[in-house]
Design a protein that fits this description.
alpha+beta, four-stranded antiparallel β-sheet, 1 helix, about 30% helix, globular
């Protein structure tokens, strides 16, 4: 993975966590596409990058967990 892409991929979850937290606090759906029936797991592509993430929203713990990172070279 190129260095610039690696930096963008590492920094993205921090920004995502802030965005997800705001959505949860406001009672809105977090960013991405819902991929389970429980409303906890979401999938999204990092804008302008060949990287896709799947993450879990854990509102009681006030955290997200990135479960999958896929890089399309």
């Amino acid at each position: 993975m190129p260095l610039d892409l690696r930096k963008a991929t590492v920094n993205y979850p921090r920004a995502l966590a802030i965005e997800v937290g705001d959505a949860v606090d406001l009672g809105r759906q977090p960013p991405g596409r819902l991929v389970d029936d429980l409303g906890m797991r979401y999938s999204l592509q990092i804008e302008r990058e060949p990287v896709q993430l799947e993450y879990l929203v854990l509102p009681e713990a006030r955290e997200i967990r990135v479960a999958v990172i896929i890089w399309y070279p």
